[in-house]
Records
---
Amino acid sequence: MEEVNVGIVGLGNVGSGTLAILAENGDQIALKLGYRLKVVAVCSRSVCSKEIPAELGDVFKTTEWREVVTHPDVQIVAELVGGTSVAKEIVNAAIENRKSVVTANKELMADCGPEIWDRAIHAGINLAMEASVCGGIPIHAVLREGISGDRVMALYGILNGTCNYMLTEMEKREVPLAGVLAEAQMLGYAEADPSADIDGFDARSKLVLLAALAFGEKITPSDIFMEGIRRISPLDFQYARQLKHTIRLICGARKTASGLILFVRPALIPTSTILAGVQGAYNAVWVKGKYGEDTFYYGWGAGARPTGVAVVSDLMRVAREIRSGSPERVSPFAHERLGENKPVSILLQKRAYYLRFRVDDRPGIIAKLAGILASKKISLEAVLQEPCDTKHDLPFVITVEETSEQSIREAVEEMSHLDFMREAPLALPMETAL
């Protein structure tokens, strides 16, 4: 039976991993499909220095991506360059040339994925994006098909392996963020400019896609409240441990009576929960269904081979559609069309909170803070204080009973102006509903 022909644009870590899998696992892939996936063209700015596996045979190599998307033999274009500028041009050109598209591009799909899917449908071709979120976990397939008969009520995830590595190292070794960031950069987990990871942008793009899949709504990045991990310190883990909690960068989406609430932020989670056990550069997603209850998915979030597996699996799915199906068989967003209902404000969320302070010690501080909390109708639950050598930068923690995000923000804003504060209080929600 004739092969299905593939063109790959981008030979970085993911592209190289994809080529290696197609070469090394080609026979098994052919057994599953009944025909071979044949790489006929590859593109990279440094393609001349790239080693193409000999098992792939004669492959057309170019530095010009347009030569791949217009190649007469290419049936599927794998866009693996990342970003939202050139990548968008590649995807649009592939669709215009009636080539199906496989992408690992979370930013592009978060920004304009539904519009790209509409154009793909009108062109009669397919679009697949499994590798865009949690490269080593088939979470798209789970939400799109595996549990599609359920109604998702909540989804919580650890979607950024770099942040999770740094937080778990801070917890285990009591090393400050700057130290573990430098280590993460040396190991290749973090970029030279780490803001996409530690400020939450990467995780937010991923949550956009998972929320669309889970809830059927057209989400944009600006719909999601985002806070990074820059202010988390080893001291926060010490206090969290006293409370039988740990700290993770949590991506959350849940239905409430008022509507869908979405957030990316560091939060305290009980050490008894399954997400608390996710260590290092791993990702995990916990999904609560109305009928199927709890399911949990765990694996590598990135890496050449794990993400390459997701790309190759998408190539196989699209190849089957080319051979025997319809591009409309299953939308990559799990719904025929996404709704336009906007998420509700995070300010409506109610949680218990952890408040960490650094102050110049003097009499009456607790009374002053308790008075501000009382004025916002916030009930104090506990006060924790680790031994400290200095009274000029004294840390301590107050936990409060469940209150609204709006109330806690108003209280923190008022507290920030008190003359004994060394810095604004750190407020973290306590996500006990996991």
---
Amino acid sequence: MNLDLKNKQAIVCGSTQGIGKAVAIELANMGAHVTLVARNEESLKAVKQELNTSSGQLHSYLCVDFSKPNELKQIIEAYLQRQPIVHILVNNTGGPAAGPAHLAKIEEFTSAFNNHLICNHILVQACLESMKNAKYGRIINIISTSVKAPLPNLGVSNTIRAAVGNWAKTLANELGKFNITVNNVLPGATSTVRLKSIIENKAIKSGHSVSLISDEMLAEIPMGRFAEASEVANAVAFLASPAASYINGINLPVDGGRTANL
């Protein structure tokens, strides 16, 4: 099985913490040159120092705020003038705030749509020509199991994640002929800052303890534990590799079996 990513150029978004950071680490361990993307420059510098360089990898970073799509477009286009080759794009952005859909403000939907679908689309369009020329492209979107079954109290997230999922499937159908695959990884409850925030918010709103809310969530997972970010990263890394060359247009849950449907 060919999992070698030496000489491959990867862009990983949201890569200063959680799943995004774990993905960047794993791709670097497999030999890829990784460009980190996030909004905090000090955190970007710190993660860059953690990445494997044993195969001569040259890592870099882009400091950009996804709430400003026009700024992202300018930054990625300038980057591609300097580094015109991209083989792997991992789209990953922190999810919208929790809450029921019927109480969400219009701005919450438009903001999430821009942060996720519009910014993803800007990045894909910027990288597409390079992937076509290389005859190797891997576009991997880290979304949520809510694209298969909406999750309670995540109204905005459920809505926007589904839009990204269908956008990705459409791209997979269009780009497969160029040897570019487009796939979605759907993390379940994963030990990240976001999960901690979700549990704490549920505890506050319900009046129950954090431990009780956590136990209730664990009871929904057949494996009886939360995922580690590295376990989600392993799935992303496989889809980025040559070994996954004929996997295209799928939703891959990494959720310990929590999602009720196939």
